[in-house]
Amino acid sequence: xxxxxxxxxxxxxxxxxxxxxxxxxxxxxxxxxxxxxxxxxxxxxxxxxxxxxxxxxxxxxxxxxxxxxxxxxxxxxxxxxxxxxxxxxxxxxxxxxxxxxxxxxxxxxxxxxxxxxxxxxxxxxxxxxxxxxxxxxxxxxxxxxxxxxxxxxxxxxxxxxxxxxxxxxxxxxxxxxxxxxxxxxxxxxxxxxxxxxxxxxxxxxxxxxxxxxxxxxxxxxxxxxxxxxxxxxxxxxxxxxxxxxxxxxxxxxxxxxxxxxxxxxxxxxxxxxxxxxxxxxxxxxxxxxxxxxxxxxxxxxxxxxxxxxxxxxxxxxxxxxxxxxxxxxxxxxxxxxxxxxxxxxxxxxxxxxxxxxxxxxxxxxxxxxxxxxxxxxxxxxxxxxxxxxxxxxxxxxxxxxxxxxxxxxxxxxxxxxxxxxxxxxxxxxxxxxxxxxxxxxxxxxxxxxxxxxxxxxxxxxxxxxxxxxxxxxxxxxxxxxxxxxxxxxxxxxxxxxxxxxxxxxxxxxxxxxxxxxxxxxxxxxxxxxxxxxxxxxxxxxxxxxxxxxxxxxxxxxxxxxxxxxxxxx
Length: 569
Prior knowledge:
Elements: H1 7-18, H2 31-38, E1 46-48, H3 57-60, E2 65-69, H4 80-86, E3 91-98, E4 108-115, H5 121-144, H6 172-175, H7 183-192, E5 199-203, E6 206-215, E7 227-231, E8 234-238, E9 244-252, E10 262-263, H8 264-270, E11 295-300, E12 306-311, E13 317-318, H9 320-334, E14 340-345, E15 350-352, E16 354-355, H10 357-362, H11 366-385, E17 390-395, E18 397-399, H12 401-404, E19 411-415, E20 419-421, H13 435-443, H14 445-454, E21 458-459, H15 460-466, E22 471-473, H16 478-490, H17 492-512, H18 515-531, H19 537-546
Parallel strand pairs: 1-2, 12-14, 13-16, 14-17, 15-18, 17-19, 18-20, 19-22
Antiparallel strand pairs: 2-3, 3-4, 5-6, 6-9, 7-8, 8-9, 9-10, 11-12, 20-21
Helix pairs in contact: 1-5, 4-7, 9-11, 11-18, 13-14
């Protein structure tokens, strides 16, 4: 039972099914929804990974009902993680507890403690919190099957974090800061509000909500709150003590309404702020201290025979600029004297979700912006597909075009906790990313059709079973595992056999049907989706961005062509 079909809910459903349980999922928005969802279905246990509404007594007195709370034993309240991040807690936790009349006060079924990293809330929630929550959920399922188990009363339970307590909802007045403050304090406040609700502040004399903050420079001479520069989609803002921070995303007061969350430069431009008055800054060298960068390249291996490109897409959303720059970097990296090129996300829980819907929504011409971005991500897919080196893409959770992007590589690997939504249907798009060639090439035409039409997530092990990925790595120690795997592919025999197999297959396939033909068919359908709104992309995009109920999936206004599916050899 969940208030949203979010990443944690999908991951929990897949983990429970993988453990052999039969699972039913209900997305609810009111207490009445909860009663309706359970009235015709008998359950051993009702688990609520993410719930923002009160559970009726008629439900939790009939079935064991367990709420997953993102805080340690003794912590209560709807802003648990926000308070922990803003107050720089070194340790935090997740607790599974029985639903009772008072929020977060029921007996305990399971709990986990973890080190709280200094990251934005969305990364912590989808990383450490989600990992701990899944462990708790599986433990709850085991205990629900034990007739002798009784949950532990909170008053009797050990509190590993002794000062955990009930806290009220965090208000904007609690989140407020002065730009003259220390940048570490400002970063904590913005990190704690990341995802939602953002921190209300002022930039260029306009009210804004801030997200996606990064450390900046020191030794500066500027009034706090001044816009010092811009790089890619982020803006640099002066702080106290001659320092700065970078703000990658914000929403802005447009006068009659607030904008959606969008790349900072796009949001400021939409509000009429002339970006030309903000100087563009450039990193002098890779890793230049205090400069915002979302793509890096390095070499590793005994003699530097492996190249690695890492990119950072905010919660998986890829802007047109990021796609174009990533294409350029991969092209340049492939010309180095390395043998294997690794492409991966920069240590975040989400690899990619494809198009940046916020950049599209805030554009004066959303359809044109979406078209430019899809062409840019297609170019990126081509660059990986025809890479001169053995290409290895390492993915975590991904969706839509971001799930199809890795399929252009010679080798695809995933972390064990990855959840992959290999479809576009729920966003009202036919999709591109060359998927009509690369997806059936890997999984076969029938499985490709099932993934696209069923619009259901798969876990890493199913992805491995069907050939969507080639290897699944451990959740703990993934970086070391990936380094060892890349080193194996450097070995002459394995490198040659892999290249012969993948490039030979590519040559045979494209001799039968050119890649341009696949892309032409995909883009024909995408043109109808974007410019004729044939599948309701506009309404679904806005529902996602503004957190309103999703509209029903409409019938196509124009019948789309059936995409040609390559048969596996």
